[in-house]
Specification:
mainly alpha; Arc Repressor Mutant, subunit A; 6 helices; elongated; disordered N terminus
């Protein structure tokens, strides 16, 4: 009686497909998806491809196609991989897409600061005890960040919002426009 998966070409680890003996490793068509591994066989870290795609997309002044992004990445990723990454970024509201003919063009939804703010908001929204999260965050701020946060909150309360900057100290260390210490 033959033992299951160990003769007849099956894998001994219970997974189906492949030879299971490592002889196909590195051969064309057997190394996995294009772009999954970098030089020296290291897998890309979680979010690394998304960051690379977003970085390339930010270099353009106008919305671009997935093929354009693929080309700028050096061509080591399959077109379908680039589309998948862009679609995931769109689902996370990190990029916008607009239909042009039968395809899409893609553009960043915000600059780096805006994207960081979106990530912070998602983390905050995912927590049950918002007060505890905000308290922990604020108590861990450096004195400079705390001054900036106070100035931003003061400006928002005054109706200034964050759109035009916070009005605090500039790079030269001066106070804000109305003489308040920032």
């Amino acid at each position: 009686m033959a033992s299951s998966g160990q003769d007849g070409g099956g894998r001994s680890d219970g997974r189906s497909g492949g030879r299971g003996d490592g002889r196909n490793a590195g051969r064309a068509g057997h190394a996995g998806h294009a772009g999954e591994r970098r030089a020296h066989g290291r897998r890309r870290g979680q979010g690394e491809l998304e960051a690379q795609v977003l970085s390339v997309l930010r270099t353009s002044r106008e919305p671009e196609t997935a093929a354009w992004v693929q080309n700028r990445l050096g061509g080591d990723l399959a077109y379908t991989t680039v589309v998948t990454i862009l679609t995931r970024l769109h689902a996370k509201q990190i990029v916008h897409r607009t239909r042009v003919g039968r395809s899409y063009v893609w553009s960043p939804a915000a600059d780096e600061a805006g994207l960081a703010a979106q990530r912070m908001r998602r983390v905050l929204d995912s927590e049950a005890d918002r007060d505890a999260v905000l308290t922990s965050f604020v108590s861990s701020l450096s004195p400079e960040d705390e001054r900036l946060m106070r100035a931003l909150l003061r400006d928002a309360a005054d109706g200034g919002g964050a759109a035009g900057g916070y009005g605090g100290e500039g790079a030269d260390g001066r106070e804000d426009a109305d003489g308040r210490e920032a």
